[in-house]
Amino acid sequence: MSQTRNESTWIDKLARLGYTAKGIVYATIGLLAVQAALGNGGKTTDSKGALGTIAAQPFGQFMLAVVAFGLIGYMVWRFVQAIQDPDHKGKSNDADDIVRRIGYGISGLIYASLAFSAIQIIVSATQSASDGSKKQTWTARLLAQPFGQWLVGIIGAIIIGYGFYQFYKAYKAKFRKKLKLYEMSDTEEIWATRAGRLGLAARGLVFVMIGFFAIQAGRQYDSSEVRGLDGALDTLSRQPYGPWLLGIVAIGLIAYGIHMFVQAEYRRIRA
Q: Is 114 exposed, middle or buried (0-12, 13-18, 19+ CB in 10 A)?
């Protein structure tokens, strides 16, 4: 019994550190984008670019090492969610539950890759290849396969669907059910809800754009059409009223980072 309790405590701490690390990454992306929108330096970048920015700060290698450990923690938590269903969202024979578990597993792999990139930066003191160029390489490989255009298009449609799911989550604010609201003041609860909704909506918009770029790549048989998070933000900045659009989405990404910090502090972690 005590062993189970100790394991749960260990996973609890690792999960909370993971949410904190994810929050730092998104807040960094948002802050850099805000600076770009205001014309005060900054840049539109993705998660790996944010890691490089963290490494370039005073004591950056140490900070990045902490973030890398946190990302590993988030990876472990995602795999725990995929295997054990700690939130008790469904049954093993439920199709929706299976899809959800697969999603958790994919998320775990993505953050494993991000943690590996952070470790690479620490070890080599140089930033690894951009996420956008890697996406284009993988897209080119997919396009070269039989029915490659359809595969890329389907992936794009799935990404767009995930983006709209983020909009749904923002509208319903179901994340509140996972939070220890009784530990918050009324003001904290209001702002935690607002940050969560704004952050999820901004993230949803970015995913819809990324999915649209993937569909374009499939339609035109051109892997260079693929864009990652940095490409989506850069595209926003080039539109009419671009700095305003970029600034709004950037604030949303900062809000998503804050949402992750709230998750780290108040989320119910059951393992």
A: buried
DSSP 69: H
- Distance of alpha carbon 261 from alpha carbon 16, whole angstroms: 9
Q: Distance between CA 130 and CA 164 in Å, rounded?
A: 26
Q: What integer pLDDT is reported at residue 219 of this predicted model?
A: 85
CB 86 within 8 A of CB 80: yes
Nearest-angstrom CA–CA distance, 208 and 198 = 15
Alpha-carbon distances of 126 from 41, 129, 262, rounded to whole Å: 21, 10, 32
- Residue 125 CA to residue 137 CA, distance in Å, equals 24
Q: What is the pLDDT of residues 214-259, one digit of tens each?
A: 999 888 887 878 888 888 898 898 888 889 999 999 999 999 999 9
Residue 78 CA to residue 112 CA, distance in Å, equals: 10
E-assigned strand segments in the chain: none
173 within 8 A of 201, measured Cβ to Cβ: no
> Position of tokens 């595969």?
151
Interval 58-80: pLDDT, tens: 888 889 999 999 999 999 999 98
DSSP 177: G
Give the whole-angstrom CA distance, residue 199 versus residue 229.
Answer: 14
Is-contact 19 67, C-beta < 8 A? no
DSSP string, 78-121: HHHHHHH-TT----TT-HHHHHHHHHHHHHHHHHHHHHHHHHHH
